Amino acid sequence: MAKKSTAKTPENKLLVGIDLGTSRSAISADNGKKKWVASYVGWPRDFIARKVVGKPMLFGEEAVKHRLSLDMYRPLKNGVIKEGTARDEEAVKELIHHLITLVQNAKDAEKIRAVVGVPAESFKVNKVALKKAVAEFAESLFVVSEPFAVAYGVGALDNALVIDIGAGTVDFCIMHGTVPAEEDQRTVLTAGDYIDQQLFTFLEERYPEADFNLNMIRRFKEQHSFVGESKENVEVEIPVEGKSTVHNITDEIKRACESILPAIVESTLELIAKFDPEYQDAIRENIILAGGGSQIKGLADYLETTIGEYGPTKVKVVEDPLFGGADGALELAREMPEDYWTEL
Amino acid sequence: MHNGDSTKIKASILREVYEDNLRIADPHLQPIHNRYRQGIKKLSRPVPLLFVFFACLLFYFIANTGQQQGPGAVDAVTIQPVFPWAEIIYKQQRLQSPASTVSFDAGRLLNYDLLLNHNNIRLSAIFGLGVQTIVIDPGHGGKDPGAIGSNGTKEKDIVLDIALQLRDRLQKTGRYKVLLTRDTDTFISLADRVKFANEHHADLFVSLHINALPQKEFNVTETYYFGPPSDLHTLRLAEQENRGSEIMTGDFKDMIKKIGNVLKEQESETLASTIQHNLFSNMEKYDRVIADNGIKIAPFVVLLGVNAPSVLVEISCISKREEETNLNNPEYRQRIMASLQKGITGYLSQRQTQVVKGENNGKKIHRKNT
Ligand SMILES: Nc1ncnc2c1ncn2[C@@H]1O[C@H](COP(=O)(O)OP(=O)(O)O)[C@@H](O)[C@H]1O
Ligand SMILES: [Mg+2]
Ligand SMILES: [Zn+2]
Asked: Are A337 and B14 in contact, with CB atoms under 8 Å apart?
């Protein structure tokens, strides 16, 4: 059995796992390097903009900073590469290229072998486009769905449920000893961005005089997110007529974070219900939260209690929500038998 | 699970990933046979019902390609109220029944793998799984007020308010991407509404309207899907709603080819009846004499052009004084919104269970051999 999987990676090859996210994309390489970048690609709008930014193309936060001079793309927004839009496909390609250059040792031009995890929705819709996008930079690659990569990384291969809470989507994926089939996966659109929108609306209602924007809102959320009982008051500084003022946003944070719970609980129950009762118990006791949203305080406890009404339940959070997907993809790359790596 | 098990599972999973990815390059490869998967998937021996189902899908797909020129290509601004009804009805009659079409295509064309791996088909759209895009179309807008009540209430304002609420409500479930053809008081041509829905790959299209009748004491709820007019009343209504469609007779004829889209028609009918049922049970509570006109067929341009199942709802009649008063009440509109939402989600979840059941041969899934 072990004959295939022990084959060594040949010299001069670099194995990478890539997580293409709706808001953040991460790469994890077997030389130990890990990097992430906001999933934005921007091209200078014109000749002058090109001079101003000094580069033909910008990525991540840098692109966001110069957004006024750039044509900006967030190619996987909503989890799907927009079909037939050449620029979106190109943006995905450049993003992957950029990630690879971040971990590559430039001097010894290594050949890249990649496993790329993509949002479950785009996996279904546009595998071919994705594969084409990476072909240029990699000698060989595999495309897998992102929650599956997470599951593989934490060894949750059988009777497990992975819930990957990202910015644009929450992806669910039940593992039962195989690559998950279509009906074992589900995508829900009330995720991180939705919390931001809700929080924005709530704060606008309560503090109409306060002056905030979506970026500030996201920062507040990432610092203070919680569901359930609050232990202390959440207070943040928001300018009012140019003067920094302390605002209590405890209630609003709670309501915004909790707005994604009903869809998560419902989807979980529905996915699990499709299995025979003996497996339902096993799956319920092996629920794994991943993605940026898994850091919401109290989330695992809340789900454990709520879903617990249907039987014993255990909910864990992955150790490294930022790199869970990329690490899982790298693990897949490491364990992929040598003769499966066919050249593109 | 002990380690030996885990190694075996890993080996077979890795092989699956490998074969899945090979199939990305070559969709004609046979599906993999993971040992853990045997006894789970029975798709290699489809039961007749499944067979017909997939053949329908394939037919749907074929009927939808090769006619990209749709209304998007229309730029001439000609209002042409004389539609070729006779021709529509003629074509309708010549249409093969769904069953005969299916059995003809099925033998030669049905290839489950091809269907699954064709990268232009949106699986979620076909299978009703995953995220679905719902386009809601509040009728009229801007310079076109639609029907007007005797106190000046305008159809365009009422339907916009209901549409906005409906969007928020549906979005909250996390299940659907919900788009509005307009979210402000602006004029949008029917051609652009159609284009919008198709460009966003709508899985479902619901156009919202309020009616006005010359007989001011009447109140009626009715839901339409596309087809030739069944009587003069629907013809007149269609003419009203088609005004400003900016589609010429020639293009209209092209669009009629879509009548061959059997699946869309059947789905539209089901959608229409779920919506009508839910909406009417709600309206009845407030107006005991409101008439249930049920689901009807009419040649609305918007319904024809959109590729997805589509319906047009005439919620009620603003020409009746009491109804106009009611429509001005936010709570009343919210009730209407809720009943529309029930109709839409009711239809979608119904379709979803059908699909899931179909895929698993109607049995409880039990994906493990012990
Ligand atoms: N501590 C936190 N609490 C709540 N949400 C968070 C936290 N940290 C990050 N997020 C949110 O997680 C989302 C990004 O998660 P990620 O898994 O990287 O998304 P994706 O894979 O879709 O790119 C964003 O909406 C971000 O605001
Ligand atoms: Mg992610
Ligand atoms: Zn109307």
From this structure: yes
